[in-house]
TrEMBL record:
PANTHER family documented for this protein: MALONATE-SEMIALDEHYDE DEHYDROGENASE, METHYLMALONATE-SEMIALDEHYDE DEHYDROGENASE (COA ACYLATING)
Origin superkingdom: Eukaryota
Species of provenance: Rubroshorea leprosula
GO cellular component: mitochondrion
Stated name of the protein: Aldehyde dehydrogenase domain-containing protein
Any Gene Ontology biological process: L-valine catabolic process
One Gene Ontology term of the molecular function aspect: methylmalonate-semialdehyde dehydrogenase (acylating, NAD) activity
Domain (Aldehyde dehydrogenase) ranges: 7-73
Length: 75
């Protein structure tokens, strides 16, 4: 299942590039708390879209909303 999700993410990324989306507008990342915290704390990142567990989603929502970021969580 995880491999299929990764392939779908890569396909979305490729389509975004083909459609002319500027570099840096879409970034697909996999990571742990260190990555999540860095994203939530970075003032240049204005929005976060997350797919995963409700526990992780609640954590990301709390961290990102404290920095007034737009957040989309799909749990």
């Amino acid at each position: 299942m995880a491999a299929a999700v990764l392939l779908a993410e890569l396909a979305v990324d490729e389509l975004a590039v083909e459609a002319g989306l500027p570099n840096g507008d879409l970034n697909i990342l996999h990571g742990t708390n260190d990555i999540i915290n860095a994203i939530c704390n970075d003032d240049d990142i204005k929005a976060i879209s997350f797919v995963g567990t409700s526990t992780a989603g609640a954590y990301i929502y709390a961290r990102a909303s404290a920095k007034v970021k737009r957040i989309q969580c799909n749990i």
